[in-house]
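> example.struct
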C-alpha cells in the first residue's frame, strides 16, 4: 500500500511540474496546451488536402521555372565573359 501511495505522490508531483512548465512557457498550463491544440485542429480543418496539394504543385512549378531562368542567366553571363574578356 505504501508503494502505491509513493507512486501516486510521484505522479502528482510530476503532474504539477508539467503544469508549471507549460505555464512558464506561456501556454497557460495543460489546459492552455489543449486549447491551442483544438484551435490548431480547427484551423487545419479549414484547409483541404486538395488546396495544399495545389499550392505545393504551384511552388514546384515556380521553382522549376526559376531554375530555368537561372540557367539562362548563367549561359548569358558565360557568353558575355567570352565576348568581353575572351582571355
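> example.seq
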Amino acid at each position: 500500500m505504501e508503494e502505491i501511495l509513493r507512486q501516486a505522490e510521484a505522479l502528482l508531483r510530476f503532474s504539477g511540474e508539467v503544469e508549471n512548465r507549460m505555464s512558464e512557457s506561456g501556454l497557460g498550463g495543460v489546459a492552455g496546451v489543449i486549447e491551442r491544440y483544438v484551435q490548431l485542429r480547427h484551423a487545419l480543418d479549414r484547409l483541404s488536402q486538395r488546396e495544399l496539394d495545389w499550392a505545393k504543385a504551384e511552388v514546384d512549378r515556380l521553382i522549376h521555372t526559376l531554375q530555368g531562368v537561372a540557367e539562362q542567366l548563367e549561359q548569358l553571363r558565360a557568353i558575355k565573359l567570352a565576348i568581353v574578356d575572351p582571355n
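> remarks
The two ends are 91 Å apart (CA to CA).
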